[in-house]
Design brief:
4-stranded antiparallel β-sheet; Naphthalene 1,2-dioxygenase Alpha Subunit, Chain A, domain 1; alpha+beta; 18% helix; 8-stranded mixed β-sheet
């Protein structure tokens, strides 16, 4: 129910006229999810729309997933409508030219041999299947230079099966991802306690964000008395988010009550919208082990509500190239500087996301030793944002 409401909300939101367009190039480059593996069937041609471009996805004769351009190089027919897959090969609906999974034209009706020039080739993109997702490599000039981790250990008996939560969000894809580094909004939007520790570290195309905070168990449906009793025996929740390029992040949450693993994929549809997948599991060996599925359902319902709180804000907000970051928000500009590496360089003299991210304002030290808590007491907090 929450997911349906969220999608209706996202679909009906409009972009305000006063919201500035994101400077070109709009889209980051790297590995991006395009669909769930189970959604791509053998002998099926799947239409995809990402990066303001049409693509198709197929499975070759060996069952391997391949993402390709969606327009026939012969006369420009759109393969996503009435195109077919026969024996792992794409068949154009117009003149029935056939292309193999590498994009080579292998057969043309009424011709003795197929053309073999570069112009006759249907572009095929590097494609992998990782952790139940089909992912394509989109880059204007480089072959894949970083890996998406294999998280198959989370498919074992110690974890529940995944619950997938998919929705469309409007706004800048970079802002949507930097949201995890915004400790302030956990308090103001999601009614969470203040973070007591936060750090952001980078390593080339990889980054890690770690935050510690208390638990608001009333958000999970517990009565105030039960929540108060449980909190006496529960410490902080430790949440670590690992970023692998601009399109994938893996979040691990751990506290004495439960352990949760969540894979988050985000892929731009166009300059204003992105598709986001949340794939969540909980450990069967945590304190909630007698009822892991019940707890997982509660968490996903709460998460859907949380997203519904943010979707309207991001849909109507203006992109700020120089926000007024406060001390407790200094992990955000560090994130922007890291994320900026995934944008292509623009034409000379024209502002691009790469430059805006690189020039994000930062504090002199990049470190904060104290954060004033809501009740006036000084909570010891370390906001470390260092490049490793």
């Amino acid at each position: 129910m929450f997911v349906n409401k969220l999608q209706m909300l996202a679909d009906n939101l409009r972009t305000h006229n006063n919201v500035s367009l994101i400077p070109n190039p709009y889209f980051p480059e790297g590995w991006f999810a395009v669909c769930l593996s189970k959604e791509l069937k053998k002998d099926q041609l799947k239409r995809l729309s990402y990066f303001s471009t049409e693509f198709i996805a197929i499975r070759d004769e060996n069952g391997e997933a391949v993402v390709m351009d969606a327009y026939c190089p012969h006369m420009g027919a759109f393969l996503g409508r009435k195109g077919k897959v026969v024996g792992g090969q794409v068949v154009c609906p117009f003149h029935e030219w056939k292309f193999n999974a590498q994009g080579d034209c292998v057969e043309v009706p009424f011709c003795e041999r197929a053309p073999s020039t570069a112009r006759s080739k249907l572009k095929a993109y590097p494609t992998i299947e990782r952790n139940g997702m089909v992912m394509m490599w989109r880059h204007s000039s480089r072959e894949p230079y970083y890996e998406i981790p294999d998280l198959s250990e989370l498919s074992g008996k110690a974890w529940t099966n995944q619950i997938c939560f998919k929705f469309i969000t409007r706004g800048n894809s970079m802002e949507a991802k930097e949201n995890v580094c915004d400790g302030s909004h956990f308090v103001t939007i999601h009614d969470q306690p203040e973070p007591t520790f936060c750090e952001f570290n980078t390593d080339g195309p990889f980054a890690t964000h770690r935050v510690q905070m208390g638990l608001n168990l009333k958000r999970l449906g517990l009565s105030p008395k039960v929540a108060k009793f449980v909190l006496k025996h529960v410490g902080n929740s430790d949440m670590t988010t690992s970023f692998y390029g601009p399109g994938f992040q893996n979040m691990h949450a751990l506290n004495p009550l439960f352990e949760m693993a969540e894979e988050i994929h985000s892929t731009p549809v166009d300059e204003h919208r992105s598709i986001v997948w949340f794939l969540t599991r909980v450990s069967k060996e945590s304190a909630w082990s007698p009822m892991p599925w019940l707890f997982l359902a509660i968490v996903k319902a709460r998460e859907a509500k949380d997203v519904m709180m943010e979707v309207p804000i991001f849909a109507h907000k203006k992109f700020m190239d120089k926000p007024l970051f406060q001390k407790q928000e200094m992990a955000i500009p560090k994130f922007r500087k890291w994320y900026g590496q995934f944008y292509a360089e623009g034409e000379s003299g024209k502002p691009v996301m790469r430059d805006i991210a690189a020039n994000a304002p930062t504090s002199k030290t990049g470190r904060i030793s104290k954060l004033e808590s809501a009740n006036g007491n000084a909570a010891k907090v370390q906001f470390a944002a260092t490049d490793s």
